[in-house]
Write a structure and sequence with these properties.
Elements: E1 2-6, E2 12-16, E3 29-32, E4 35-42, E5 47-48, E6 51-52, H1 62-75, H2 79-86, E7 94-100, H3 111-123, H4 128-135, H5 137-145, E8 150-156, E9 163-167, H6 171-178, H7 184-197, E10 199-201, H8 202-207, H9 212-220, E11 224-228, E12 252-256, H10 258-273, E13 277-282, H11 285-299, E14 303-306, H12 312-318, E15 325-328, E16 340-346, H13 359-370, E17 373-378, H14 383-392, E18 396-399, E19 404-409, H15 418-424, E20 430-434, E21 440-444, E22 449-450, E23 461-463, E24 468-470, E25 477-478, E26 490-492, H16 496-503, E27 508-510, E28 519-526, H17 538-550, E29 553-561, H18 567-574, H19 578-590, E30 598-604, H20 609-614, E31 620-624, E32 627-634, H21 638-646, E33 651-654
Parallel strand pairs: 2-5, 12-17, 12-18, 13-15, 13-16, 14-15, 16-17, 19-29, 20-27, 20-28, 28-29
Antiparallel strand pairs: 1-2, 1-4, 3-4, 3-6, 7-8, 9-10, 9-11, 21-22, 21-23, 21-26, 23-24, 24-25, 30-32, 30-33, 31-32
Length: about 650
């Protein structure tokens, strides 16, 4: 049989081999010359190569391969590199070399040589570098040359055991224990990060720029706990309800409070399980964990949560057992569900992949190729979804939050207005939301303006304890001097760290309103930063933040703002969620902005204007210190995206 096999470098090879199963080979994993590939089609001819098919069932389905091709066309990607970027790494087996002991133990060797052999007899095998580090390279080379040890190549999957860290203390306990410790601010940064992530691996915490020593210190203080990621939850009792809340057919969009969204999702699952399986995609781990608990209470072991744990390779193929609820993040996008009847997205924060691909587009195409129902469950509308609903005439339901709304104008630098203090008196179930990280902004008296990042033109964040200015957009760091004139800066405004310092107490704090848990009172202390960014999306982002936060409040929703007369806040006070969207959609159409056209924004560290001019392109350009930003508006993106990607931008947005 002649097969076309794709590899993670984006290339393909045609091979001629025997396929051991009486099924279509498309989508199967195959090991060719110690490399992991995926069969992506048939070929007219091929090289006669030894191939091994390690799985009894396909790793991905033919429908996934068609979606990969289509998405790659839309976003100017190499399809097979994109395919492997979505596959869980546990399936990408690698050839590893080991040194193994002899079958017959030699006699009369010197003590150093026998120490090596006894060690290997106990360990079974070891990697060459670790052996040389432990016993020295000379003795290992001698034993290999004489045949007392031998080399062995093994194909093995990566170890996916994950150790994670969780916050196990209240903010009051955190402040009490770290207030006199060294590197207080760094420790507080880690705590804030874990408050939003629920849990995170050591690598994830380090990637955010945090010091591993501070992680260990917080564990010793009893503020963080290290544990292994557990997939199964034995303690959850469940009882399947048979009463239908609402039957959903075709495409459907729900917007509003999470409690009602959960009811609607359960209804969709109940109707789906009569006919097949459902894929429920969550973009964040915190939402995934909340949904997993809620759905397992209701549906029990029918729910299969695909996360990056050691059992993933086994659970992956259990997706094909039929009539299941498959719950997962990006790792579940290619899960091989044979009887897929419904696809649901629950919340869309962080919905874009690193390649600029919108996960909504990916899953919508998957539903088209499989004939599945498609449903969106969101806390607030974005312009793209609203346009999708209107243009496709997709049925939608909006469940407006019922909490009382209070808006207080705030003076610059003021953290809590008196009106807000009065509302909060004797209240404890409160979520404070501050869109700004760090302590505040940096103001330069000499320039009479806020300090800007010299690389990307974003307002710099003032970190008091670190004594640094940091750009939360590109990672630029400097001392407390203005990058423009070198003058000393001072902090103005406030970020979440200053809020926690001033308010204290046993409350909840976050920089973003994560959908799920609700609070008696939700207070947006400041979201005005969204309006300070020079972007056509700034008001939309402000709108989404405010209405997302509103959906988390049970009794009272408080907004403090420097702009209490803005149209977004006026709409909030009227309870009118629709007018802003209609007005914004009308403006976008008049100005030919997304979703009526495609906008490509690429940033480069090098000068690329000559190459762009050679292609006779019309574009806007802005210089940000070392960075050059190119903005192109187009209705045909395929060739332009490939051109931009070939120039290796530092970032690329597809809007």
């Amino acid at each position: 049989m002649n097969l076309r096999v794709a590899f993670n470098n984006g290339r393909t090879v045609n091979i001629s081999t025997d396929f051991p199963f009486d099924k279509s080979p498309v989508g199967y994993r195959v090991i060719v010359s110690s490399r992991t590939g995926v069969v992506v089609g048939y070929a007219k001819s091929g090289k006669s190569l030894q191939a091994h098919f390690p799985d009894a069932n396909p790793l991905v389905l033919p429908e996934h391969i068609e979606v990969i091709k289509e998405i790659s066309e839309m976003y100017g990607l190499t399809p097979w590199s994109f395919l492997f970027s979505l596959l869980p790494k546990v399936f990408i087996w690698k050839e590893e070399e080991y040194i193994v002991p002899p079958q017959i133990v030699p006699q009369h060797l010197d003590k150093a040589s026998m120490d090596v052999i006894r060690y290997l007899l106990k360990k079974k095998r070891a990697k060459p570098k670790s052996l040389e580090k432990k016993f020295g390279g000379e003795v290992i080379r001698f034993l290999l040359e004489k045949g007392f040890l031998r080399r062995e190549k093994v194909l093995e999957m990566p170890d996916r055991t994950e150790e994670v860290y969780r916050l196990v203390a209240t903010m009051e306990q955190v402040h009490q224990k770290i207030r006199r410790s060294k590197r207080k601010q760094s420790k507080l940064d880690i705590v804030l990060f874990l408050m939003e992530k629920t849990y995170a691996t050591r690598e994830e915490i380090k990637e955010m720029g945090h010091n591993p020593k501070d992680i260990d210190a917080l564990v010793r203080m009893g503020l963080l706990r290290k544990e292994k990621l557990v997939e199964e939850r034995k303690d959850i009792e469940h009882k399947v309800k048979t009463r239908m809340v609402r039957e959903i057919k075709g495409s459907y969009v729900f917007v509003g409070v999470a409690d009602t969204a959960l009811d609607r999702l359960k209804s969709l699952i109940e109707s789906t399980l009569e006919k097949g399986s459902i894929l429920v995609f969550c973009s964040s781990r915190s939402t995934l964990l909340w949904l997993e608990d809620e759905l397992k209470k209701h549906f029990g072991d029918v729910v299969l949560s695909l996360t990056a744990h050691k059992k993933l390779s086994k659970d992956w193929f259990r997706c094909q057992e039929g009539k299941r609820v498959i719950l997962g993040t990006k790792v579940a996008l290619l899960s091989p569900i044979r009887d897929l009847f419904s696809v649901a997205i629950f919340d869309d924060v962080g919905i874009k992949m690193k390649d600029g691909v919108d996960t909504r587009n990916f899953l919508f195409l998957l539903s088209k190729h499989t004939g599945a129902e498609f449903a969106l469950f969101l806390p607030s509308f974005d312009i793209q979804t609203y346009h999708f609903v209107l243009s496709k005439r997709v049925p939608y339901e909006y469940k407006k939050p019922s909490a009382d709304v209070l808006v207080f104008g705030i003076r610059s630098g003021e953290v809590l207005t008196q009106g807000c203090k009065d509302v909060l008196k004797d209240s404890r179930d409160v979520l404070f939301l501050v869109s700004k990280s760090g302590y505040g902004y940096a103001y330069c008296p000499r320039c009479e303006s806020l300090a800007l990042c010299p690389l990307c033109n974003t307002f710099l964040t003032f970190y008091k304890e670190k004594g640094k200015l940091i750009c939360t957009n590109c990672g630029y760091k400097s001392g407390l001097e203005c990058p423009n004139c070198g003058g000393e800066v001072k902090d103005v405004g406030f970020g979440i760290e200053r809020v926690m310092e001033e308010i204290g107490g046993n409350f909840s704090f976050s920089t973003y309103p994560n959908w799920g848990k609700r609070y008696d009172i939700v207070v947006v202390l400041s979201a005005d930063t969204f309006l300070s960014y020079p972007s056509f999306q700034s008001e939309e982002n402000f709108y989404r933040y405010i209405w997302r936060a509103y959906s988390l409040a049970r009794r009272i929703f408080v907004v403090q703002s420097l702009f209490p007369e803005s149209k977004v806040i006026k709409g909030l006070l009227r309870g009118d969620w629709k007018k802003f969207l209609d007005d914004e959609l009308r403006r976008r159409k008049e100005e030919d902005l997304p979703p009526f056209s495609r906008l490509l924004i690429a940033r480069f560290k090098k000068d690329v204007e000559k190459k762009l001019k050679a292609h006779q392109l019309s574009y806007n350009i802005r210089k940000y210190g070392e960075l050059t930003e190119i903005m192109l508006k187009t209705k045909k993106t395929k060739s332009l995206l490939r051109l931009l990607r070939s120039l290796r931008p530092t970032s690329l947005e597809v809007l």
